[in-house]
Amino acid sequence: VFLGFINPVKKIIKGERSPSYLLNQLESLNREWNIFHMRTTKSVDRFPKETEAIIKSMHIRWNLVLKVIVP
User: Fold this and answer.
1) DSSP state letters, 2-70
2) N or C: which end of the chain has fewer CB within 10 A?
C-alpha cells in the first residue's frame, strides 16, 4: 500500500507529480487501496479493532474522494 498508493499520492500533494497523474493512475491507485483494505479487514488474520476502525474510516474517505473525482 505504501509503494502503490501512499507514495504516489504523496508526490501529487507535494507537487512532484501533476494533478493529471492522479486521473491517469486512478484505476491503479484504487486497485492498490482495495487490495490493502480487503487483506486487512476481510482476512483470516484479525487486526486490533482500533486498527480496523482506522482502515475502514480511511476507506470511506477514499470513496468520498472518488465520488468527487469521478462523476
Assistant:
1) IIIIIHHHHHHHTTSS-HHHHHHTHHHHHHHHHHHHHHHHSSSSPPPHHHHHHHHHHHHHHHHHHHHH-
2) C
59 burial (CB, 10 Å; 0-12 / 13-18 / 19+) is middle
How many Cα atoms sit within 13 Å of 52 on the Cβ side?
11
pTM of the model: 0.77
Cell of 57: 474510516
Closest CA to 64 of 35, 28, 56: 56
